[in-house]
Amino acid sequence: MAGTCDERPLRSAAGCLLLWLVALPQPAAAQGWGGALGYGTDNVYRGVSLSSGQPAWLADLHYEFGTGWVAGIGASQERPAFQSSGAQFTLYLDRRWQLGEDWSAKLGAVHYESPWNVWRDELDYNELTAAIGWRGRWRLGLVLSPDTPGVFTANGAGTDVAAAVELSYHQPIRGRLAADVGIGHTRIRNAIEVIYQGNSRRPQIADLSYSYGSAGLTYGLGDVHIYSALLWASPAALQYSLGSKDRTRWVTTLVWSF
Predict the structure, then answer these.
(1) Could you tell me the pTM of the whole model?
(2) Choices 2.40.30.10, 2.40.160.40, 3.30.2000.10, 3.40.50.300: CATH for 8-257
């Protein structure tokens, strides 16, 4: 993993939305163990903060085997609204292909768990991912989930189908300094529960969608990478995640890969 910007340790990476977007899906270069440890000024994933705007750590351990197969476990600090700090774990399996000299592709499955969250039953969910990349510059990704949690209320949150599409561009500048930009859009079915006050009180379920993006710089020094980016999200992102307080903010993350 040295010298690369790999998405595996960054599935819920602290502030590394753009890096998840720009990571070019490639087949595993060699079999064996690898991983990463990192710390960032926030844990932002798809435009929303998982740590209520506070600093967070991250970790990853994976094994590469066969021809392009990668299996691993990741973890990152989370701080849900009105709760103490905990951790979110991810189990994942990826299959990667090199499609000639210029193109590469990836299919994957991810399982998320938050064992210390009081709403952990609603927060255990799954995703299927697909991505295609061109020359390490452009990357287009698609995410589908059958059971993503909706907006949280006093009674927790229901789950339903969700989808996200993401597009990014990676531009080397000089040496291991590069510029990265990314945009994404997600849609969650049956996400919102609205309680009407007054003579009647009834829930209303509706779909929710929001956009997000990032622009910043990455720099590598040996096996260490520094990521700094300006992240933004549309207003509906704050409605989806009570832990997200700002729609626009700078986030910096330091990651050591091994």
Answers:
(1) 0.84
(2) 2.40.160.40
